[in-house]
Design brief:
- The protein is mostly helical.
- It has one domain.
- The protein is built from eight helices and no strands.
- Helix 1 packs parallel to helix 6.
- The longest helix has 26 residues.
Length: 238
């Protein structure tokens, strides 16, 4: 029998991590350029929907692979914030509704990028967990960049408030679910095993409260430059 290609343990900022970051940046640049070249045209709606179908065709197998794991309740259900963002991504692309684009903007460019910089990942390429983790996170960031800087659907204070309500609703649901099942979705019950920014925020539950305060402040700062420039120039919604 021939040798199998077994995955090695993932090494943060190793070769595979750096290549993924380069792919992330290249995808952002390409999608922003595409969106700007078509902004306000019928082609923009068509290509956004093509991306929605393509992203959905990728996200669904990623999530199915998670559910197929043995310990599905503890870690395999599509309940992490990135899972929710991944499932929202095709909807945001298909409809281009400002509230959905805003949620992708805040989640994708703050929370998902944190996971890109400090990934909680055990196996390297070509393990399915590696492909699933990075595929999902890249699609989320690409969606946010395409909608915001490509098509010009800028966030505003309404989108900020909607994202806060959606996020707090998700947090409350996950805290209750974690308490009932012994899971740790969203790292709301304990910090991840790998090093992360949460290590700087103290023990539980203070790091959760500190994280909320930091995120809300960061999102407000992410909103301010856009509202100073006036209303969004993005396309009208369907």
């Amino acid at each position: 029998m021939g040798a199998t290609w077994a995955a090695e343990p993932f090494s943060p900022y190793g070769l595979s991590h750096l290549l993924v970051v380069l792919l992330l940046v290249a995808g952002v640049a390409a999608l922003v350029a595409l969106g700007r070249s078509e902004r306000g045209s019928a082609r923009a709606a068509r290509d956004a929907r093509i991306l929605a179908v393509a992203f959905l065709a990728l996200v669904l197998p990623f999530e199915a692979a998670s559910v197929a794991r043995a310990d599905v309740v503890v870690e395999g259900l599509p309940l992490q914030l990135c899972d929710v963002a991944g499932l929202l991504s095709p909807y945001a692309l298909w409809t281009r509704r400002p509230w959905a684009a805003a949620v992708m903007y805040y989640w994708g460019l703050s929370l998902t990028t944190q996971a890109v910089l400090t990934p909680d990942l055990s196996a390297d390429f070509p393990d399915l967990v590696f492909v699933q983790f990075w595929g999902l996170h890249l699609l989320i960031v690409w969606t946010a960049a395409f909608l915001t800087w490509g098509l010009g659907i800028a966030p505003d204070w309404h989108g900020y408030r909607v994202t806060i309500l959606v996020s707090l609703g998700w947090m409350a649901s996950m805290i209750a679910f974690n308490a009932m099942t012994g899971s740790n979705y969203g790292f709301l019950n304990a910090k991840p095993d790998a090093a992360s920014a949460l290590d700087l925020l103290g023990p539980w539950p203070w790091y959760v409260l500190a994280e909320v305060a930091i995120v809300l402040t960061a999102w407000a700062l992410m909103t301010w430059p856009w509202v100073r420039r006036g209303p969004s120039t993005g396309p009208s919604t369907d």
